[in-house]
Amino acid sequence: MTTHGNGSTKVLDFLLNCFVRYPGWQLWLSLPLSLLFLLAMGANTILLITIRLEVSLHQPMYYLLSILSLLDIVLCLTVIPKVLAIFWFDLKSISFFACFLQMYIMNCFLAMESCTFMVMAYDRYVAICHPLRYPSVITDQFVVKAAVFILARNALLTVSVPILSARLHYCGRNVIENCICANMSVSRLSCDDVTINRLLQFAGGWTLLGSDLILIFVSYTLILRAVLRLKAEGAVAKALSTCGSHFILILFFSTILLVFVLTHVAKKKVSPDVPVLLNVLHHVIPAALNPIVYGVRTQEIKQGIQRLLKKGWQ
Question: Coiled coil located at which positions (predicted)?
Answer without folding.
Answer: none
